[in-house]
Write a structure and sequence with these properties.
By secondary structure, the chain is mainly α. It has one domain. 63% of the residues lie in helices and 3% in strands. It has twelve helices and two strands. The chain has a two-stranded antiparallel sheet. Helix 3 runs antiparallel to helix 8, helix 8 runs antiparallel to helix 11 and helix 10 runs antiparallel to helix 11. The radius of gyration is 21 Å and the shape is globular.
Length: 334
């Protein structure tokens, strides 16, 4: 059903015009430049152009974000250029809030260069789907934690009654910003524009690869050992495919924004466990003890490099795909 509905021919140098004259080298170069809204080009050029635009947005936002963070630290009386940095929650929170620049620049690029609407990016009127994404993330992590508990990989100690309410709220907003930034870039900008020109599976794969690569560079996944690195990379692809499928099913990116933010928040702040190999920002609401490091709980990298996450993510993908297919078939009959 999905394959027929979204089929596109393979990547080839095919142009829509009927001219027998081959495009010049200058035309090929111009086609690849991110700052034009041309669509009359080969599918291969279109993909390269969009990936280059992603890299440009990521780089520009990163440089501006770094400058803003340095400026804020300097204004607070610190000297970040010489290693004098704030400590505690402030040091961790400010960079997360800086991720809003990535979202703003990506949206501006979509609107000003690509002439796309917020609806086309994925921000439809179904904003309540954000809550659905949160629910899916919580359900998944409950099941992952259950598998780890029954296998003895982790133990539940107690509820942390010394939780900082302000910390819970501030980190909640931080993960909303961070999760939305990645979804706007990878799904709202890249996947939703690629699927207009290439087969949907290819659009999902390319956007997922672009999602995975920064995690390989910016997290310690490759230092976790070969087995955990392979499981972690596989899980990154699986979770990215899940984000894509749930977006396509619901017709918006609200749902993956909620899922992404809630996954990181619950794992890092509520459970006090690592996210992508990075230590928890504060003691969790539930104090969890890792009994033994193994492939079930993901060892030092955390749940995201464990097979418990692999199993639950695959099951979730299958369930959502089944629901999507059944509803699509029913709509076809009606």
């Amino acid at each position: 059903m999905v394959g027929r509905a979204f089929y596109r021919p393979p990547l080839r140098l095919i142009y829509k015009n009927n001219s027998k004259e081959e495009p010049s080298m200058k035309t090929h170069v111009i086609n690849l430049l991110p700052f034009n809204n041309r669509t009359e080009m080969s599918r291969a050029e279109y993909v390269i152009k969009k990936v280059l635009a992603f890299i440009l947005i990521f780089f520009v936002a990163g440089v501006l974000g770094e400058a803003v963070v340095i400026g804020l630290y300097t204004g607070m009386g610190y000297d970040p250029l010489h290693g004098v940095m704030p400590e505690g929650q402030i040091a961790g929170l400010i960079p997360y809030y800086g991720y809003i620049l990535f979202s703003v620049i990506a949206i501006l690029y979509c609107k000003l260069i690509e002439k796309r609407s917020m609806w086309d990016i994925g921000f439809t009127k179904r904003g309540t789907d954000y809550l659905l994404g949160i629910g899916v993330a919580v359900a998944m992590l409950v099941l992952v934690l259950f598998l780890c508990l029954v296998t003895g990989s982790v133990s539940f100690l107690r509820i942390n009654r010394d939780m900082s309410i302000s910390g819970l709220l501030l980190w909640g907003l931080a993960f909303i910003i961070q999760g939305s930034e990645e979804e706007i870039l990878c799904r709202g900008f890249l996947m939703n524009t690629l699927k207009k020109k290439i087969p949907l599976p290819a659009a999902v794969f390319i956007s997922s690869t672009v999602f995975v690569i920064p995690h390989l560079i910016m997290t310690p996944i490759l230092d976790s050992g070969l087995v955990y690195a392979l499981i972690g990379i596989a899980n990154l692809y699986l979770i990215s495919v899940l984000f894509s499928i749930i977006d396509l099913w619901r017709g918006n990116i609200w749902v993956s924004c909620g899922l992404h933010a809630a996954w990181n928040y619950v794992l890092n702040i509520i459970l006090g466990l690592t996210v992508s190999g990075n230590d928890a920002k504060m003691d969790g609401l539930f104090l969890i003890e890792i009994n033994k490091l193994n492939i079930i709980n993901g060892s030092e990298y955390g749940f995201e490099a464990g097979i418990a996450t692999t199993v639950i993510t695959i099951i979730t993908i299958c369930v959502i795909h089944y629901i999507w297919k059944v509803r699509s078939d029913n709509n076809g009959i009606q």
